[in-house]
Amino acid sequence: MKLPSWLCPSDANRPPLLQLTLLITCLAPFTQAITFNPIPSANLNLDNLGRVGLAGDFSGISLYQFEGQNENGFSTNGSQSVLARFPNGGFATLASADAGIQAMCSFVMQDGAMAGVVVGGNFTSLGGIESQGAALFNQNTSAITPLTGLSGQVSALLCDEATNTVYVGGSFKGANSTNAIAWVGTAGWTNLPFSGFNGPVTSITKASNGLGNATGPSLPDQQIINISGANITSGSSTSTPGFNEPTNIVCKTSGTDGAGNTWLLADNTPGFWKASFGFGFEPTKLRLWNTHQDGRGTKTWRYTAFPINGIMNFTYIDPATGQNASCTSECPLSSNTSVPYQDFHFVNVIGMNGFQIDISAWYGSGGGLDGIELFENDIFAYAIDTFNEPTCAGIQIASTVTKTGPWVVTPSQQSSSEYLSASLSASESASVVFLPDIKQSGNYSVNMYTPGCIQDNTCTSRGRINITGIMSTETSNPGFYTEIFQTNNYDKYDQIYFGYIEAGSASFRPSVTLSPAAGQSTANLSIVAQRVGFTLISSSGGLNSLFEYDPTQAEVDTSTFANSTFDQAGASLPIGAGVNALQTSGSTTYVGGNFTTSTLNNIFAVSSSGTTALSGNGLNGQVMTMFLNGTILYVGGNFSNTSTGGSTGLSNVAAYDTSKNTWGALGAGVNGIVTNIVPLLMNITTNQPETVITLTGDFTQIFGFGSNSSVPVTGFAVWVPSHNNWLQNLRISTMGINGELTASVDIPGGGSLFAGSLSSSQLSANGAAALSSGLSSFPVHIQPRTTQSSSSLSKRAASSQNVSGVVTGLFYDNGGRNVTILGGHFTAMGTNGSNVNNLVFINGSNSDTVTGVGPSLSEDSTILALALQGDTLYAGGELTGTVNGGSVNGLVSFNLITASFDTQPPSLAGGNVNAISTRPDSSDVYVGGSFSAAGSLSCPAVCVFSASQWDRPGTSLDGVANAMVWGSQTSLVVGGALSINGANTSLATYNAKAQNWTAGVGATAIPGPVTALAAANSDASQLWVAGTATNGSTFLMKFDGANWNSVSAGLGNGSTIRGLQVLSLSKNHAPSNLVPASETLMITGSLNLPGFGNSSAALFNGTTFEPFALTTTAANTGGSLSQIFSQNQNFFSAPGGHLAKGFVVLIALGIALGLTFLLVVAGVIADRLRKKREGYSLAPTSAFDRSGGMSRVPPEQLFSSLGQGRSGVEKQSTMI
């Protein structure tokens, strides 16, 4: 099987250079096809059943055809996966990440060999293997190879076959690069000539124009690392009181010698001073104060970092010469008393959580120090306040934190530092407010650091957190709000803000607040808080958000920036502008983001001739994503019109025709931000796949337009260009898909891979589907239900049903008609545009007209059972209403010829109708349920409607009837929670001739009320029953005519069986004592199959359960099936067209009569031969002779001879 692929521009159209700041461009097409293991055919023989349907509570349904299919909904915890397509169109998960996937590209080497698919995102593991932000996915084996060495988030990838290079952009650090780096062939990570950027890279494209160097903050080394909170020790300290404590030099910056201010070594002895921290840091500068106590002092020293145990290199200014110098193992300190301190700058910025200063030489009698401080470029605010800047350092506005809630300190284990964690019940709250020390106003990148969940065993209880920030005193843009997931397996950081932050002052402090997000169902939600980092972004060299890079250049010449139209386009944007997406078409690159000038608003085009404004001067809001399909550029973001106005329907998504320079609408758009646009191949109206456009984002509704109403969605929508409409509006049979797509990539050789989290199904259909050789939809639009009650999986109960979806259905074909009838609790759209509630008719004889019964029945009603008696439909359930001026309850009758209500049966009282069954060869309609009376007649559990009146069948039955099946014209089997003459039973049989009830044979073996019942053979002398046992478990049993056999062991906990049906097979399965080889048992409901998971229908062959149908709901849960219904009821007709029972009886009668005739003739002939042998002759026949020889025999003599030779029983019978 080859994966489908959406079409891309040819490589010939791709220009030679690169541009960084984007999503990803179209890539080349898969070396080998991904294959999926098919499931053996179910071999159902439905030929004798006519039309067949499946009813249930679902919005999508699939037949189980390939290993890997399941009913799982899409992930809502922020994790995404690498996906591929099943041959039936569904999506298969190949490798799951613990967070998001933002980009993918196919890494083809210069020799044409496929190295794999590079996957980038903010994940810390992929396929269960630790992978920080980047990994290589093997498209043939699904093996994961981590691309180790990065720390942070990868947002953009471009695989360049010509140079054996993968260009990587994002918000990360790796090697000696920041935010941009390259992976070259098999050599691994390689620094680009400019060592990255001072801001995150969001997109990379290959074009005729392309990265850049950037400066660090203008105030480096500005945050002091808190040494006072460290565990401080020393070796070989002096024994002199007041000078032997290593903590004496912490927070001492005056350089004053003396007891309590100075730490000294023992005389003429080398020693060390050591600090161990509960958090990690990357120092950039060390400041040391030498001691001059009694002529002592440190002459040479070295700095060892832990846990790497490495001696660090420094640069410094020699105070004696004023020249730059460097040192490693013997760094000098001056003894000049006029030098207050010396600064040593780290050559390599290395992460560490401790360090040690070893003193190897000294002045006078021994070494010592008066003070020590450690600095870093990064600005951090920690959740544990002792990790923040020391208050003793005299900092005016030191970084600090405030918190509320049940926080506890958690050991760092695999994390970079200790952190706070809290376990919250639904009624508890907690928050942490980070207050950083921002000394310089400017544009910052702000990152939230989150410890991994594996180390503290909280992966199952982690969820979402809210993050709010107050960044300035400006009223127009004071701060931000976002949500992130904390479900990462390993440590990660997320960029939570990029923009302006005002410096702290006595009257204002920037702040970031962390708290749990609302609406999470986790019982004991675990949240963690570690630290927030702030990186100052400053532009230099004329670069601003855009940079053109020529990979053939070994060095970047900043003087040439003015010669690049691409670089100049960035320079023309205002300070603080952000570019989110790039797309290239020929020599033109389209740039989208968040910026505003007089003519360039959020989107523009760049070519070799310069910058060009798009129609309407761009858009009036931020562009987040773009995708180019031919000449149509699809744009998503947070906008509503062009900048100049006049283009309607551009709500957060638009289509720009690059050939005509015009904007077009996708319907009327959606009601929220669009973050991702990904193409997808789908079969819409023919077997020829076509490209559709998927949108992912923060929206809940597709706006209505034209004759199309608005459609509720969950952040995912599909636009079909060929129909100029949304897939959700098309009334055609298509696959169902929901969730999120963030990226896609073509594989050389054919096929595509996707990134995201999806729930998909073969058929998008709500509540009902037709079954033949495959699935198809009924020609009716039933509105999807976005919520689903937990009890909706139970078809019947003694009280309120609370059922949703389609519960039951039947086909009406009298007089050559073709009407499909569906009942349940739903809303469908009638042909005239009106809503049809709970009972719908689809008239295939009249252009599939969809109608209902009007407002007579309450919208709250639920139809649980349907039955036909001639041309009259009986519908029962939990229903109420007013029909023909009279109240109805439980049951109604409807004339299908006149399409109107007949005179109604008197209302039922005390409960619902759960089952309706017409007695064979009669007009009697038997109704079962939880009611207690029919009209004024006491008639519990089962009542019969005949000749326009209710009758109670027998007088001994009570309880609740859930299911009924006729075994013959006089034998009715009923399952439920019943009692006969006060004795409880789950199964009862009614003899319609004798009019009495008896408990089912061996029914005491049934462990609970029967909720589903089916005949196991043609006369129902064998039965299948299912229900919920008194201990809460699910049971499934077969009565073989003598004994009950339980097969519940094949069903897992939580299974609910709603229906049972024996079906014929076209190919026999292995022999079984429970199920004949030519048959199978279909079980419908919500099933848990051990070793597989959830399934809505399964087939049982007497030995194993095999999934048959899988369903999903609009609420992102697995659905359920209530029953299979069919036009004909020939369930026990064997393959090969055997005659019906009536014809068999007639033929047998004819054969019997023929044999009788032959026996009579043979008897006559034998008698004649015997008489001839014994000399008998014919009696005279003359008239005069007829009475001549006759003598009278007395009557008593004649009758007394009749009894000669008979048994006593026969004699008695004769006398009677």
Give the tags.
1216 residues; mainly beta; Jelly Rolls; 7-stranded antiparallel β-sheet; 6-stranded antiparallel β-sheet; 90 strands; 44% strand; disordered N terminus; disordered C terminus; membrane; Rax2-like_third
Give a written overview of the molecule.
- It is a single chain.
- The chain has 1216 residues and is mainly β.
- Among the domains are: 223-376, Jelly Rolls; 393-536, Galactose-binding domain-like (Jelly Rolls, Sandwich), CATH 2.60.120.260; 802-894.
- The chain is 4% helix and 44% strand.
- Strands 17, 19, 21, 24, 25, 27 and 29 form a 7-stranded antiparallel sheet that branches. Strands 59-3-89-88-87-86 form a 6-stranded antiparallel sheet, with no helix packed on it.
- The longest helix is centred in the C-terminal third of the chain and has 33 residues, at 1141-1173.
- It starts with 16 loop residues before the first strand and ends with a helix.
